[in-house]
Each structure stands twice: as structure tokens, then as C-alpha cells.
Amino acid sequence: MVANIGTRMVEVSHGKLVLSGNLTGESHGFPTSRGTIIHSWAIATLADEAMASVAFTAASEDETTATVDLKVDFLRPAKPGCLLARATLRHRTRRLAFCEATVEQDGGEIVAEARAVIAYVKDAAT
User: Fold this and answer.
1) What is the pLDDT of residue 4?
2) Which fold has domain 3-122?
């Protein structure tokens, strides 16, 4: 699903990350009487990917990340085009990361806010 939304990393540092996704009406939207809007699953996927990735900025070399809990508040419809997910790592324990993100329409209008608990899992390959 992540490949389907065409994300790319715009900025990354320890505990902060920005992803962009090019969401199209044909692949990610549906028609309404007010025009095409982006489906909530695509917005949630973008937010989830951003938060799991920002948690990964604090992972050790033998850890990967997995979403344990995800909460998304949809504030307004998103239109097709570039959406940005800005994620922050709020707190890390030995096994969990508490993250938050906003998803905004290109131009800055926030369309969704999200929170996630991300688990750190030891990589089986090591």
C-alpha cells in the first residue's frame, strides 16, 4: 500500500520527518458532488508511514518498527495532489515510541491529525 501512494522523504532528522505523497483522484479518490476527494485510507497510510519512519530515526541498528495503535482525526476533505505528512517522535521508551503527525494539503491547510504508538521489534536477521 505504501508504494501505491508514491511517498518520498522530504526532510529527516532525529525525531522529525516530513514525507510527501502524490495522491491522485484516479488511484486514491472518489467523486462527490463538490469534486473528487482523497479517500481516508490513503491519508491514514501517509500518516502511518511518516510516524513509523520517524520512530525509526531513534531505533538501534538491530530494531525495526511496527505500528501498535493508530488514531487519525480527519478535519476536512483532501483534494488530489501533493500531501505532506509532518511527523514528530514525542517520547521513546525501551520498547515503544509515541508519535504524532499532521497531514496537510500542498499549501499548508491541515486535513488530518494523527497519533500512533510504534513498537520497536528486534530484527530477526541479526
Assistant:
1) 76
2) Thiol Ester Dehydrase; Chain A (3.10.129)
